[in-house]
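Incident log, structure service

09:12 report received: a user says their structure output differs between two submissions of the same chain.
09:20 pulled the input from the user's history:
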Amino acid sequence: MELTNRKKQAMETQNKIYEVSIKLMEEKGFNDVKIEDICRDAGVSIGSFYNYFKSKNDILLEIYSRADNFFKNVVEKKLNKKSAAENIVLLFYYYALCNETTGVETMKQLYAPSNKLFIKKGRYMQTVLTNVIKKGQDDGELISDMTAEEITEYLFIAARGVGYDWTAHEGSYDLKEFSIKYFKRLIKIFLVK
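09:34 re-ran on a clean worker, output below:
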């Protein structure tokens, strides 16, 4: 289905507001960015901002939406390694890439205990991982004394811990590289001996 010019323009405006918001959050920190700053730098009216986002917090919700779309449209297609273990490590490489792309300052805001979106069940990235784990269990590669959903939760708790550590260290190390090493070791506890 072809998008109308009006819809294309609306998508471009929303994306511009989002991109400027992320840039400003990285430069100033979430709490120091005002909607007026975002609108000025994006070249839109305050009314335009509110056409796309109810509040500055909705920018954070958009981060999750875009991450899940990335997992649906990109990551899931790349998980074609021979083993579940390799696919799990690759998935968390892309998870780290999402965090790095979002930026340290913005991720600090997301890692706040008040943010319950991290623990929300049913996100697409969780579904992708659960499917990889189920296949690994069906193939006899991964343990089956835990459900795929339990292993998914366990691994995402670890991934959030790695991400938190990265933000606490002000992004001073390559999160993607560290995640590969970390998950190569961690996945061993789920492998059938």
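09:41 both user submissions now match this output. Likely a transient worker issue. Closing.
09:42 reviewer note: Residues 148 and 154 are 10 Å apart (CA to CA). The mean pLDDT is 91.
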